């Protein structure tokens, strides 16, 4: 499968994506735990069906030491016993933040309170921005049918 567009060949898109990718780098340096970041990025990408991002975040998480069991259970995290309470709170917030159109009220107060119980304000800020960032990245890739399978860990760092 070929992508519909090569973002990096377009001067306009290249300028915008340079800044967009810088935002992604800033998130990596946030106080939100790296494992949580990859799990959230993966779950958002699964919900949206973004193969390129699933490929990327599965491989990045594995390269950072994430176990195959946990990676394989992200899609069914509610029933899995391998995630911490904090990770579960982040995954739940990520799901409600991604499925905004499906949830009339957006992220519920209960889900927000559960996340706030496990993360401080700086970490919550990073989590919210990460969920938003991943939804945007997913849409960029899905609209242009970016292919998956060839990502190498660290490729965009």
Automatic annotation (TrEMBL):
Query: Boundaries of each Carboxymuconolactone decarboxylase-like domain copy?
Result: 17-96
Q: Tell me the Gene3D superfamilies matching this sequence.
A: AhpD-like
| Pfam families (UniProt xref) | CMD (PF02627)
Q: Which domain of life is it from?
A: Bacteria
What PANTHER family is this protein classified in?
Answer: 4-CARBOXYMUCONOLACTONE DECARBOXYLASE FAMILY PROTEIN (AFU_ORTHOLOGUE AFUA_6G11590) (PTHR34846), BLL7811 PROTEIN (PTHR34846:SF7)
NCBIfam families per record = ahpD_dom
Official protein name in the record: Carboxymuconolactone decarboxylase family protein
Q: Which lineage?
A: Bacteria, Bacillati, Actinomycetota, Actinomycetes, Kitasatosporales
């Amino acid at each position: 499968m070929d992508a519909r567009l090569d973002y990096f060949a377009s001067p306009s898109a290249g300028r915008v994506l340079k800044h967009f990718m810088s935002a992604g780098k800033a998130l990596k340096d946030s106080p939100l735990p790296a494992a949580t970041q990859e799990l959230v990025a993966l779950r958002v990408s699964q919900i949206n069906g973004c193969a390129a991002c699933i490929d990327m975040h599965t491989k990045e998480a594995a390269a950072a030491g994430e176990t195959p069991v946990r990676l394989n259970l992200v899609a069914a995290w509610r029933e899995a016993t391998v995630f911490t309470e904090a990770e579960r709170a982040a995954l739940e917030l990520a799901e409600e933040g991604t499925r905004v159109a499906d949830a009339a009220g957006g992220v519920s107060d209960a889900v927000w309170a559960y996340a706030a119980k496990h993360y401080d304000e700086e970490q919550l800020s990073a989590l919210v921005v990460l969920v938003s960032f991943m939804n945007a990245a997913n849409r960029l890739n899905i609209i242009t049918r970016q292919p998956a399978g060839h990502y190498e860990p660290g490729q965009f760092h």
